[in-house]
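Think of the structure tokens as a kind of shorthand, similar to the way a musician reads notation: each symbol stands for something richer, in this case the local conformation of the backbone. In the example below we present two proteins back to back. Begin with the first one, reading the sequence and then the tokens, and try to describe in your own words what changes along the chain.
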Amino acid sequence: MAKRRRLTLTMRMLLLVFIPLWALSAASIGIGTYYMAEQQTRKLKDDIKLIARAIRVPIGEAIEKGDLETVQRTLDAVFSIGQVYGASVYNKNGERIAAAGIARHDNDDNPLAEKMLKVGEDGDAYQHQAGRRVYSHFVPITGPNGQLPTMVEVTRKASDFSTSVDRIAYWAWGSWGLVGLMTLAIVLFGYRQAVGREMTRLINVMGEVGRGKLTQRAADNGSTEMAKIAKAFNQMLDDIETAQQEIKAHQAHEIALNQQLERQERMAALGRLVSGIAHELGAPLNVIDGRARRLARLDSDPKGQHELDAIRGQVGRLTRIVRQLLDFSRGGLQREWLRLAPLIESAIESVNYEQQSAQPNFNVSVPENIKVYIDQARFELVLVNLLRNACQAAQAQVGVEYHHADGKWQLSIWDDGEGIKGDINPEQLLEPFFTTKPKGKGTGLGLAIVHNVVHDHGGEMTFSHAEQGGLQVTLNFPEELT
């Protein structure tokens, strides 16, 4: 199928606007030229008629007197007028009795004169004299005593009429062509100024958008119509941008949901695995610890006692790991309204009991009357793990602060240590078995347990840089839990 050729907007404007207007002006020029030619021809004929009527009386008087010389002088005087090409006087038989101009070269009688004499009235006609086409006007001659049986003829070249008409047509059609060309130039220039440049700018913007620059916008400060097109185009781009943002937000939400679901599934599977391992390890560790205590009572050798204490120390460490594993896999909450300050004091006491080196100073800023709706055992586990990490990282100070704002209550625990390294993503700290502590110093379950408990309470946990230089962990809980 042949491809249909489309016309440009310029060609459409020329075909639908300029050419019809130019054709209409041509019709107007043609009609006007026709009527102007008719008026010019009538004027030329009237001039000859007036001359003929002006000389008929003196010629008539001269004929009555038989003075043909005066008749001839009158005809010669008429011929001297630039508009007259020839003049003749005819008797009642149509015979030429006097002539001037071209009529001198025509020796034939004029049958028209005889015909006009019979009618006895003015008349005119185109004819040939001396081989040339002329226009003649016949007027009956009038003497002092009335109309005489003679006729005067005044002629003019027929080409005078066509020359006058051609001159009018030349100037009319020449002016039409010149005005048409000027109009065409004005139309094209006006189109370029009014539409062309704005259309080019809009096309350029569309090209930029097509190459992926969706932030481009068309200028809407032009003509009303082009401004409407530009605004509609910009609105379309805004709608596309909004739709893309919604799609990206939806995709990000789906990705987050999928990651959360994947993590929950992974944590659930890991919890089941950890629970089974912890139960299997619990009994052997109790047996080892019991046997070590029994041997310690039986053996008084200091070196043996030291070795048994080392065994019991490692068993204790393994026992704590098992307890953490069980806490990690534990589900369900048993909430109740509890004062927050005593829970924090109890957790600090437990952490102090574990510390073997110098203990940091605790700065606690928690109102005594604040109550929270929590699972006591699991929340104590959160506090102990966070405080233990802070104590291990701190140089001299650990702080606990309570805040309430924007429909949430917060609990922040910070230290003045070195903080986390720049190449570590805080999200990694929540992964099970990931730890920044030296080998043998941590299991990587503390923050994972804290995150699970906080999440079960409907809260969020964030990491930030503390003003004192170390790490700050902030727990955010909804107000309805207070």
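Once you have a description of the first chain, move to the second and do the same.
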Amino acid sequence: MIQQGASVQPSPDFYNEMTAGGSVRPHYREFAAWLAQQTPEAIERKRAEADLAFRRVGITFAVYGDNAGTERLIPFDMIPRIIPADEWALLQRGLEQRVRALNMFIDDIYHEQHIIRAGVVPAEQIYRNAQYRPEMQGIRVPSDIYAHIAGIDIVRAGAGEFYVLEDNLRVPSGVSYMLEDRKMMMRLYPELFASHKVAPVEHYPDLLLDNLRSVAPVGVMDPTVVVMTPGMYNSAYFEHAFLAQQMGVELVEGKDLFVNNNAVWMRTTRGPRRVDVIYRRLDDDFLDPLAFRADSALGVPGLLSVYRAGRVTLANAIGTGVADDKSIYPYVPAIIKFYLSEEPVLNNVPTYQCRHRNELDYTLANLAQLVVKEVHGAGGYGMLVGPAASQQEIEDFRARLLARPDGYIAQPTLALSNCPTFVENGVAPRHIDLRPFVLSGKTVSMVPGGLTRVALREGSLVVNSSQGGGTKDTWVLEQ
């Protein structure tokens, strides 16, 4: 048997999701009792079964530049992250508030710009932002929604407080792993779902499709929705194909679409079919070679002109990335107060903007204790985790900061919460985060849960799959 008291020993410095002060938290008690009855051999057999099933279905993640190959499985852990109903209610309220405010912010900066005139967000932080798209100025989008799908990264630190670590509003990924992890857990351990009231997530594709249809161009009553992918070599291609299949819509590449008569059309075996809503999974720069990168072979020539005319909806909207750039992140609490006249439900992580001389000086003096991030970085790249860095890495990063201070922010190294995880030597705590997915259309909606990512390397705080992280099923318990 797995001796819970011996093998799930939490570090005293981190909030442990399962235990507190040597006792199991109430919402984990039933699961902990079940876990204590499992042998390592039984769990290993289940893990091997899961890996085989994932590989057969093709649930892989492409890692660019990986010498071991272009495709790998994202490690899946069978010990779920469990969230009680009251904690989820708090998270849901905070996430919906945050996404509403961010959508209002994007709409404002491309139209009236009240927030700039009020001095809440400096103009240069918007106009000099790499994700700002002047082509979007004055364009009206259905329901004034820009971030139709948002993935908000949540961490837990200190005594258990929740913090928003990052807003992902461009082409957030990972929801397919949330769905497949749940499907796998129900297949491996049906008895656990019989004894726990776990809120369902499998209706997410239906919710997504309803959301996309709700933001079709004005006057379109039965919209045609497609998922647009860069192609099979994209790191998230499995997810693109999965979501298209689950929603019952076509998966297309740029070469499958064309513009004619101020509309977007899809090539089919029965002739051209008009497209009304494009759930696009490629970056702004590649969408239209006539408007953005002329060398893009992934986009659709003339797409922007149809979009500007309001005759096709893009989800997410062009120019949405200006709101999820790390240079805007420090202003989000003020953005919430400005548009909603509410206090933020969820806290930001304290952030130093290195473009300010005094905050740069503090960062340079404390590099060994801070996490420093590129404002345009993603995927765990372009960052320094001071406590885990060598002296040479710290000095190299110091030179980068001095050369381009406005390209970086710094944050304290959070003591991320940990959760019991099955590793080679048994069950041990590993650090986690959570990415819930928030859908915005006629209403704001979400499924109860999200993608829990886990840093499988002992002591690591980097959960990204591209950096060796894995995933867990996320259980939100119903009342």
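Compare your description with these statements about the second chain. The domain at 351-412 is CATH 3.30.1490.270 (Dna Ligase; domain 1).
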